[in-house]
Amino acid sequence: MKEEHYELCRQVGLKIAYYRKLRGFTQEQLAEMIDKSTASLGAVEAPNVNRTISLDTLFDIAKALDVPAYKFLEE
Description:
Blueprint: H1 6-22, H2 27-33, H3 38-45, H4 55-65
């Protein structure tokens, strides 16, 4: 990932965690809903891990959490 995008990716992960908790899901539950491993989802949500996700995965997460995908990208 480009250094200039690090903070935005970190914020996306934190927003995923926020909306997941708001909906009352565990990482395990959300990971199962989007057919990803818990470790993969945990890495995306972790603020200190430099991890990106594909748009397909972001769209799957948005659908599972019933949140418009753009909400994860808003500053």
